[in-house]
Design a protein that fits this description.
EC 1.-.-.-; riboflavin reductase (NADPH) activity; about 160 residues; NADH-dep_flavin_reductase; oxidoreductase; alpha+beta; FMN binding; 7-stranded antiparallel sheet; Pnp Oxidase, Chain A
Length: about 160
């Protein structure tokens, strides 16, 4: 199999969309990620997978904290901004959850301390111990096969 076939196959798995943020020297840094999952309930742990070449990896290592912002359906532009797909955009406003920058109106804001990291292939898995969480009730932003999607209403 070649790289394109592997990427296409992995893209068939529909995911939510997150923006991972951190703060270093007073500056907020963020990146869009869909490689995110919960790991453990006790203790409460999550994991994000970050490419070795991503600038965000070093920023999280420097700060020792990060947040995962699970995006709502109306936050597609934010996903594109933090993926580097939108160059001319309005300034992004942040709130803080337990001292870590978060995106307002996200479905969930999860503030974490780095618990461990593991290099696997060309990515590092960052394990975060959840220190605070805030949840909203809205529809999620979904990504599948290279496109943003919305959940369909349940048919009865």
């Amino acid at each position: 199999m070649d790289d394109r076939q592997f990427r296409d196959a992995m893209g068939k798995f529909a995911t939510g969309v997150t923006v991972v943020t951190t703060k270093v020297d007073g500056n907020v840094h963020g990146m869009t990620a869909n490689a995110f999952m919960s790991v453990s309930l006790n203790p409460k742990l999550v994991v994000v997978s970050i490419a070795e070449k991503a600038q965000m990896l070093e920023k999280i290592k420097q700060s020792g904290t990060f947040s995962v912002n699970i995006l709502a359906a109306d936050q597609q532009e934010l996903s594109m901004v933090f993926a580097g797909q939108v160059k001319n955009h309005k300034e992004v406003v942040f709130e803080h959850l337990n001292g870590v920058p978060v995106l307002p109106n996200s479905l969930a804001q999860i503030s974490c301390e780095v618990s461990a990291s593991h290099v696997e292939g060309d990515h590092t898995l960052i394990i975060g111990k959840v220190i605070d969480i805030r949840v909203e009730d809205s529809e999620p932003l979904i990504y599948s096969s290279g496109k943003y999607r919305l959940l369909a209403e349940e048919s009865k």
